[in-house]
Structure formats: C-alpha cells, structure tokens
Amino acid sequence: MRHHLDHFEIIRVDETDSTNNAIRHYEHSQGKEFLVLSAEYQTGGKGQRGNSWESERGKNLLFSISCYPTFLSAHQQFLLSQAISLSIYDVFRRFIRRFSIKWPNDIYWREKKMGGILIENDLSGSYIARSIIGVGLNINQTEFHSDAPNPVSLLQVCGAHCKRRHVLERILKHFEEYYRMLQTGRVGMVREHYRDALFRKRGFHPYRDAQGEFSACLHHVEDDGHLILEDKDGHLRTYAFKEIEHVL
C-alpha cells in the first residue's frame, strides 16, 4: 500500500526481512524527494553492533527512509544521524519528558532504550550519493523476550496506546525540517540541538573501552561523529563507534 505525505512517498508492507534491504528495490516516484518503507514485522531486523532487533508484529514502528543528500560530503555523514535521532527525540518529548539520545543515535528514556537507528550510505567520490536510514522504535509492545538488557516502549512510559501512523508522520515532518537545515548550511543549529539532547551530557559517568571501565564526562562530539570524553585526570579520550560503551 502506498500513500503520499508532502515530499514523502510511504510504502507499507506486512513483512520483510529488513526495511533497509527492502527499500533498495523501490524507486522514488516522480516529484517525491523521500521514499519511506514501513513494515509490520521484520524477520531479520538489524541493530547496531551486529545485533538483531526484537519487535512484536504490529506493535512498533519499523521503517526506512531513502534519500539523496548529495550536498553532504562523506565526512559529514554523522549529520544525518543527528537529524533523524533529533526528529524522533522531538516527537517523543511531546508525550513525556526524560528522553535523550545516547551517542551515537540510540533513543533513550531515562536509562532504558526505546529505539535504534542504522544508517547505510552509498558514496560517490567524496560525497554521499544515497542514504538508507533504518529506524526501529518500541511503541506499543509490553513484553520483550530477547537478551537486550533495557528495552522499554512508549506505551510503558506513557500508559496509553499510541497511533503508530501518526507518530511516523510526525517524525517524518521533523526529519524534513532538519534535512532542510543541513541542505541550506544551517548545520550549527543541528549540532547544538544534538549536544543538548545527549544522554548523560553532564557529570561523570561509567564507561568501558578495550582497557576496562573508567569514569568520565562528556566533553563534545566531533563533526565526524567521534566521541570525546574527559576522564577524572583531565585527559581527553577520543572514540569511534564500537570503541566505547556506556556502563548502565
């Protein structure tokens, strides 16, 4: 089933292995800048770090966005991660407070994970040719059976069922707003909002790297997505994705 929302064409399917994989088989319709594929169920949903993504059929939001941000160079890829995570963050905060973005782009309520994002970029030379942005969000699920340590859903947080289609459409509208900011060079506004939305953005907290656990505070996130922490000795530590984890 297909329908349109402003500059988006939205395709809804009952089941697929992965929305990121499935969306590659569809072409954008004439005049539609963004293509969205939303599924009721994924048989092989992918999470970060090679993990699978648990989602009960018909309860959550599983979707991918296809776009062509050719105005972004390869070293600016992280801006897309900021844009989509902020879009979700802004919408969820309308329901209840205490949401944050755990670097690089997990959606958290307090110390529990509500959603994750997996972005796959195709490059052409030094620029992004096409981006596939995959999103999994726990909306109306109440029981989780995987070994994920801290899942939570919007229903569990708010105490009421949410209309998934309305949540998706709000997220897409916010994403287009952030996308236009990037397109018109207003990247500073996106970076600043992302910094303000980060999980554990103040104070010292436990982390774990290849050498073990340590305590540090968030110093900043670089434009290319590297996380900069300051330990209790005042030393700055730089980490790429998968090199560091929060200890929850």
If you had to describe this structure to a student in words, what would you say it looks like?
It is a single chain. The chain has an eight-stranded mixed sheet with strand order 1-2-3-4-8-7-6-5. A five-stranded antiparallel sheet has the order 12-11-10-9-13, with no helix packed on it. The N and C termini lie far apart (41 Å). The protein is built from five helices and 13 strands. It folds into two domains: 196 residues, BirA Bifunctional Protein, domain 2 (2-Layer Sandwich), CATH 3.30.930; 43 residues, SH3 type barrels, CATH 2.30.30.100. 23% of the residues lie in helices and 35% in strands. The chain is globular. The model has no long low-confidence stretch (mean pLDDT 93). By secondary structure, the protein is α+β, with helices and mostly antiparallel strands. α1 links the parallel β2 and β3.
The named CATH superfamily of the largest domain: Bira Bifunctional Protein, Domain 2
Q: How many domains make up the coordinates?
A: 2
CATH topology type of the largest domain: BirA Bifunctional Protein, domain 2
Number of helices: 5
Helices and strands: which structural class?
alpha+beta
- Biggest sheet, spatial arrangement of strands: 1-2-3-4-8-7-6-5
- Supply the CATH class of the largest domain: Alpha Beta
Poorly predicted runs of 5 or more residues: none
